[in-house]
Write a structure and sequence with these properties.
Blueprint: H1 3-16, E1 21-23, H2 29-39, H3 45-53, E2 58-60, E3 63-65, E4 70-73, E5 78-81, H4 95-98, E6 113-120, E7 123-128, E8 137-141, E9 144-147, H5 158-170, H6 173-180
Antiparallel strand pairs: 1-2, 2-3, 3-6, 4-5, 6-7, 7-8, 8-9
Length: 182
């Protein structure tokens, strides 16, 4: 499914089902450029387009989508600055985390990726910024760091991940089937 079609369906779903899907105001291009300059990276195209076309955070099917550069703060019960993220310009390597059995290993910084959503119960979705997995959503739950599980059984981009979450919540198997065949 083409990115424009995914974004159009998400915006329409947010209008029709605000109980399932809501998005914050869209990002300004200058805000994205400032983030990229500060971190020395270029955001993956699909994520950048989502921020510009759909919204800068929100919620979908119970998952909290973070605004650019923010994460959820359990101390304030609101969005707050990132916890330790790591250098976004360094190479992403999930294997370094999958071998760590420490209880708080999932909180360690991850070079080349940052959290974009929280699903609850220590399950975080991360967007990979560097390396061969660039643009993919990876799920981080102690003690593993793996491509986000989904019904398509392949790595998903940020927009695809949001779309699949919305389709699951709306019980629209036909959306997932359409995405599977494109």
């Amino acid at each position: 499914m083409h990115l424009d079609a995914i974004h159009a369906q998400l915006v329409e779903l947010a209008r029709a089902r605000p109980d399932l899907c809501t998005f914050r105001s869209r990002c300004a291009p200058a805000e994205i450029a400032g983030f990229e300059a500060h971190h020395g990276v270029e955001l993956p195209t699909e994520y950048r387009r989502f921020l510009l076309d759909v919204g800068n955070g929100g919620s979908v099917n119970g998952a909290t989508l973070f605004p650019l550069g923010m994460t959820w703060s359990f101390e304030t019960n609101d969005f707050g600055p990132w916890f330790e993220v790591g250098s976004l310009s360094q190479q992403f390597c999930a294997d370094a985390f999958n071998d760590d059995e420490e209880d708080d290993a999932w909180m360690e910084p991850c070079p080349g990726a940052f959290p974009v959503a929280y699903l609850g119960c220590t399950i975080w979705e991360w967007l990979v910024i560097t390396g061969p997995d660039r643009g993919e959503i990876w799920e981080r739950e102690h003690p593993s760091f793996v491509p986000a599980p989904n019904p398509l059984l392949r790595a998903l981009s940020f927009s695809e991940w949001v779309f699949v979450e919305a389709a699951k919540g709306a019980k629209r198997k036909d959306w997932i089937d359409h995405l599977r065949h494109t």
